[in-house]
Fold Flagellar motor switch protein FliM.
Amino acid sequence: MLVNLQSGHDGPLPASAGKRTGAGKGRKIKTYDFKNAMRFSQEQIRTLSRIHENCARLLTSYFSTQLRTFVQISVSEVVQYSYEEFIAKVEKSSILGVFKAPPLQGSMVMAIPPNIAYLMLDRLLGGQGRVSMLNSNLTDIETAVIQRVFTRALSSFQEAWSSVEKLSPELTELEVNPQFLTMVPPNETVIVVSLHSIIDDAAGTIHICLPHVALEEVLPKLSARHWLATQKKAMESHEAEAMEKKLKGTKLDVKAILGRSTIEISEFLQLKTGDVIRLDGNYHDPLTVLVDNKRKFLAQPGISKGRAAVQVTHVMEEGDDFE
């Protein structure tokens, strides 16, 4: 019941008193579930998407080489769910690799759908990648092979995250029944990265589940400003390394000048073994070392490993043209 506060006494107001002209027009109402609070901002989700796009490229390269067939992996979506919703998304008989990635806290999981997982196993064991039956009970050999697949996939995960945080991921267990995984409470918010995967004629979605508790410490680093600053720094470092590598491979003309002398052409033509040409310098004067005709060093002559050599004794402060 509406109460009339203006009249000074209790009582119902006229129906028109409870209405505001134009109020609520065009206003969109969105349902919000307090049990599944959204704990990641859109900016953080976009950054996570960029990180795992790089991870997808690395995985594509690795699996193409190992499986020797067509492989295409790309990020289809990065969404926050409750852990319970994530478990519901995982296909039955998927192979799940639970891993830790210090310094991040808690456990994370990578789920490979059955058709993709068993195709990988068949090809890695020498087959043609044709799987007619999916057996949820892995043999010891299959377990060892799939563990290697997950370990190498985690290396790609580590490299993709290196621009944000230096992680040390380690596979802790394999599971084929998602219902047995109790990493976090059912209502815990998780980020689910979905990687659409095509291998040969098979297609499926690899899921990477990252609980909020695991990412909590690095959330400030997932802002666009921090991401761009880190990328710029990494690019500058890469450019500096590339320039240094290129400079190290640059060839220079280096000469050590013993001295100078001027003779006539007729004398030059008559030179023979044993003749001596007097130079303009003293024998104990330092030699001048030229780098691309610029004076760079002073040196003394000598022998190194049976070959004529010079030892630099002084670095010229500024290279002058050698006359």
About this structure: Strands lie at 71-82, 95-100, 107-112, 170-175, 189-199, 202-211, 254-257, 287-291, 294-304, 307-315. The CA atoms of residues 43 and 224 lie 7 Å apart.
